Amino acid sequence: MPATNQRPPSKIEVPQNRDEWSPAERRLSWVECRRVRRAREAIDAFLAEEQSPSLSNDHKQLALSLRKQIPGLLQEFEARCERGSKAECHRYANQFCETIEGLARAAAAARSEIRELDDHKLNVFHRYFSQIAEPRT
Fold first, then answer.
1. Which residue in 5, 121, 106, 120 sits closest to 46, CA to CA?
2. Nearest-angstrom CA–CA distance, 32 and 95
3. DSSP characters over 103-132
4. Are 97 and 32 in contact (CB under 8 A)?
5. In the chain, how long is the greatest CA-to-CA distance?
6. In whole angstroms, how large is the CA radius of gyration of the chain?
C-alpha cells in the first residue's frame, strides 16, 4: 500500500468543511480563524497518536475531553454570540481562541511526550538489530 502524506481525518466532532464552520467563522475575525485552525491542527496531531501504546491515563483523558467537549464549546460560543452584543461577541471570540489555543498547547505537549516514548522504543529496536547485523570477526 503506497504511503500518503495526507493527514488522518479529524477526530474532533467539530464541523470539517468550510460551509459547516460558517456559523462560527462569521463570529471570528480572519486572524482569529487562523488561530483556531492552527490550534485544531495541533489537537488533530495529538489525536492521531491515540493508538500509541505509550499513551498514559492522562493522555487518554485529554483525548477524551478534546473529542467530547470541543463540539460543546463551539456550540456554546455560537449560541452566546447569537444573543450577544458586538462587544460581547468580541470578548467571546477572544476567550474561545484562548481556550482552544490552551488546549492545543496541552495537546502538543502530550504528543511530544508520546512521540518521545515511541521514538525511544524504535531506537531500542535499531540498536538491537544493528548489533545482530554487525559482522563478526
1. 106
2. 11
3. HHHHHHHHHHHHHHHHHHHHHHHHHHHHHH
4. yes
5. 80
6. 20
Residue listed under C-alpha cell 470539517: 16
Question: What is the crossing angle of helices 86-133 and 30-47, to 10°?
Answer: 30
Which set of grid coordinates corresponds to residue 135? 559482522
Asked whether residue 131 carries a pLDDT value surpassing 90, the answer given is no
Report the pLDDT value the prediction gives residue 22, as an integer from 0 to 100: 59
Contact between 62 and 110 (Cβ < 8 Å): yes
Q: How many CB atoms lie within 10 A of CB 28?
A: 22
**pLDDT tens per residue across span 4-60:** 444 445 544 544 444 455 567 778 998 998 998 899 899 999 999 999 999 999 999
